[in-house]
Amino acid sequence: MFFDDERSNRLRPMILNDLVAQYMNDAERAKFLGLPESCRVRERVKIVSPDNLTMGEHCWVGEGAVLDASGGLEIGEHTSIGLNTLVFTHSSWLANMALENHSGSDLIERKPVKIGKGCFIGGLVVIMPGVTIGDFATVQPNSVVAKDVPERSLVAGNPARVFQRYDEEYIEAEVKRVREENARRRALSDDPSGWGSPSGDFSGK
Fold first, then answer.
1. How far apart are CA 141 and CA 154, in angstroms?
2. Is CATH 3.40.50.620 correct for 6-165?
3. Domain ranges within the chain, ordered by starting residue
4. Nearest Cα to 78, choosing from 59, 104, 55, 105?
5. Neighbouring-strand partners of residue 74
6. Radius of gyration of the chain (CA)
7. Does pTM surpass 0.70?
8. How confident is the model at residue 199 (pLDDT cuts 50, 70, 90)?
9. Spatial distance between the Cα atoms of 95 and 104, rounded to a whole number of angstroms
């Protein structure tokens, strides 16, 4: 049975879009959602109010992530959002406390979230409304981000706090280290044509 009221008729196209998107690959899904062609969006991703989402090039969103853009959500280029991560830009807390948690309550509060470029947001992270995450920040899995994160920092925990700061020289050194190790592994691998690090145990070689 389907309701024929204003709210149901407004929500139904979004529900159908979510259903259709599950039959697409990650590149098709990103294009279907109006995101840049270089982005990838995995299965079961939910975007609330997609018209309020701005996403840069070469972003990746993992399975089961929920991006609430109802209060405004900006994600910079080359940023990854881990699987089952929740980004909130609105809260109904006060509506619950005042016993006014009805549809259309004027006690819903919205605050934008900004995630910078070159960020790595691990899986199962919760980002609260109003938070800004600086460029090149890393948020470890299972963290709850309730306040701003400085650029070029690693945060973890509940609530998340800064555990490490890193500069451009540190990243350049890590890039060099990983590229050299991956080249060594590919040279020893039975399948040297793959990208990144080949699978297998190369520790004794």
1. 11
2. no
3. 6-165, 167-205
4. 59
5. 54, 114
6. 20
7. yes
8. confident
9. 10
